[in-house]
User: Fold these one by one.
Assistant:
Number 1:
Amino acid sequence: MSNRIPDRLKNLPGLLICFLRTIFISVGETCGLPRANTVRPYRVLDDFSDKNITLSLKFVLFSISAGVIQIVSFTLLEEVLCLEHWISYLVSLVLSVLWNFTLNRTYTFCSASNVPVAMLKVAGFYLVFTPLSTWWTAVLTGTEIGWNEYLVLALTMIVNFVTEYLFDRFVVFGNSIDTAKKNSDTQA
């Protein structure tokens, strides 16, 4: 097993640096600060291609639909069936993940990669995310802190959205984006 960083992940630090830099520049300009002329060490965000914008927009729309499924199922389990909060969260998360994976694999990333392997990668992501989010959900909504369940659910969904997009884009479907389109074009 190699300790080498995969090529698709090499630009991730640059992407994050450019994203943060863009935010700081925007905030600075909003506050009336002059823009400094600096050398751009990373050119990741210099050219927004139509493909990347389309990928992002599709992911956002499908994530919204998955969010609706998660909120509706969570509300039914929490309010109608009166289940424990963490059980309601866990079941609604699983339903949302299955929906989101299916739509994003088929329509956003157009991936013809091995479905079981891609599902295992997503399962690996959720093997880390689910226990952490279930834990912080239980802590934040518990009697000691007492945050509103829906506020915690919304914040958790935002964290899930951002981290899942990065994971899907660079790890799960990084090398197989648009392979379903290419395979259908060669068969026609």
Note: The chain has two domains: 9-47, 49-181.
Number 2:
Amino acid sequence: MDVNDNNNPKDNLNENKESWGDKLDETKENISEKYDEVTDKISDSIEGTKENINKTVKSGVKKTKSFFKRLFAGIFILALLAFAGYMFYCNMTFSEGTRTGQLIKISKKGYVFKTLEGQLNTGGIQGAPDGTMGTIWNFSLKDKSLYQKMEELEGKKVMMRYREKFKAMPWQGDTNYFVYEIEERE
């Protein structure tokens, strides 16, 4: 047997080791490349999914905001129309007429809204616990010049023209009867 013979088992083992080592390194590189490819695909897939979720959420948020804006605008318009309808109803004239009697009181009253109020004794008899008294009619005024004229006629017999409203607002007067004309009677 020759010492320089390549059939030395140790040499074969070293060659096999190198060959297996190269194959192992090659396999490691292949696995590493595949791993990087799969990781990149998964990352791209996750990013795509995140973008889709964000688009869907943003779209939903826009639709929700739009819905609530329209809802609040509709409620506001409906409330405004209801208020306008109520004010129209309250200021409608329910009846018109005249009352004659002795003007016994005219005054400005109210804490927040100063309204012009008055009382007219229309005569007649009304029972009271301590005896009898005349029938008193309460009314309101809107016109300050009429108020000044009534101050001059206080205690005298007068005839008043009035309009009765369905409901008086607090700034209009305490009663639903609004006098718009007055004449002195003898």
Note: DSSP finds two helices and five strands in the chain.
Number 3:
Amino acid sequence: MNRALKSKKCEKPGCGVFPSRGHNHGACIANAINDAEELCTQTGARLTPLRRTVLKLVWQGHKPLGAYDILQDLRKIRPSAEPPTVYRALEFLLGLGLIHRIERLNAYVGCSHPGETHEGQFLICRSCGRAAELHDTSINKALTNGAAGVGFVLENPMVEVEGLCPNCIRPSNKISKNKIRQANG
């Protein structure tokens, strides 16, 4: 699926790969819903009220949420919601590329580039739990070339990396500051 979507990504201060702590998720949720509506129009799929609500719940923050966390939040709105309801909605959203599943956490996070063909890299903060989707084609190329070099064909080149986000790096955290200096050369 490689469909250009019209909704603009948040370009306000604090809306970077890792939004600042005071970031208002309203724009993220609005963009996600607009993208979902547009993709559904393009593909003929239906964004039911339940699917829309689950998408909003996934986008309520930048932390990956497990299906049962989503169910717990959904039950505040729809007390009779059951696990299969959530899993069906998540499968629909995954199928359209509106969300991603973070395998190592068994959790879901909103896709920042729905409608575009891409392999994501996820940066997961071990301190605050937030995750950011990164798109670095050089990482994809290195993985593909490295795998091909040993006769391996990648089927799902999703990368999940744990570390500290900019908001959680403290000036007194010398190890993280040293790692940042080393990475920046």
Note: The CA atoms of residues 119 and 137 lie 9 Å apart.
